[in-house]
Amino acid sequence: MTGFRSQLGVLAERSKVTEQRRNLQIQLCSLRDAMFPVDSPDVKDTDLTSASEQYLSSLQSRPSDNDWFELSQTSKVEITWNNVRRLRLFEEDGPDAALPALHPPDDPTQVVALYLRERWWPVEDILRTSSKSRCGLLLVQSLMERLVVFLLSQVVERSSQQGALFSLHPRTESCKLLWTDSQAVGFYSVKHKGSLCDGRSAPCYLLPVLDTVLVRRSWRRRGSALQMLQDFCSSFATEELLGLSAPLSPSMAAVCRKFLQQHEDQRERLYEVEAPGGWARRRNIWLNIQLGRYALRTEDV
Length: 301
Ligand SMILES: CC(C)(COP(=O)(O)OP(=O)(O)OC[C@H]1O[C@@H](n2cnc3c(N)ncnc32)[C@H](O)[C@@H]1OP(=O)(O)O)[C@@H](O)C(=O)NCCC(=O)NCCS
Hints:
By secondary structure, the protein is α+β, with helices and mostly antiparallel strands.
């Protein structure tokens, strides 16, 4: 009888442990689901790519099983091999990093969701954060933050006529993301003085250059680009001259005009440059504005 009781005790103890484990797993799962990809522990390019390849080959080999991704209450896209493509994240400057992207059947250039961490994520959720400390202009460090820059530069503001606004960034590009109201609303990237112009061979940039800058359409005309330009200028406080990659878009030229109207001390400092930025390949932006060399149009608002 005593032996039987102690056996019962062991069984009860085991089931308590199993229960605790299960609760812990549920808590971990809900914690995982509460986080957006950018808030989750970072992954390596190689892990990301191998998980993507595995998923793609499983998708290719399995029969269509009526699996749908809901875009809204009224629209959905079937998750089949035909509606999924492999999206490369960076310029070809190192190990490949790619993700499966879901697109509407009639438009493979659009992306509605990305496959990450064993599930499909709507693009808008990948641009969100649940971290209160992710606010303002922050240096891009993790692979998931690089994915956010990729989505802003290649996917969400892509126009059907012109395609993406910029070419792919290199894997190690120096970028800052602007986080407002728990979402990524813009970014800028910098070519550092001394860095290789094409990433592989000489020549090197002769001054720091603000290379690409973008603000999401729905967030434009609220001073975000001014904030980024100010941040760029103060980040290189000891540099006598700074560049902005040529050609300036009409709206960026308008941003520069407003910025230089407000900051007279920067007028002799900012140049529109072509790589590598030597004297023959740079023009003073304030002087260009005075000479009316920019078309300060409003069409890309
Ligand atoms: C250029 C861009 C980054 C500007 O971002 P933004 O956050 O809207 O700019 P800001 O709100 O800081 O604008 C500051 C000032 O610049 C001027 N300005 C900005 N965009 C303008 C536009 N489209 N037309 C006229 N003036 C404009 C205005 O004077 C504005 O001040 P105001 O709104 O008080 O009138 C944004 O339009 C964009 O992402 N465009 C597409 C990508 C691009 O062109 N990048 C630059 C490559 S060189």
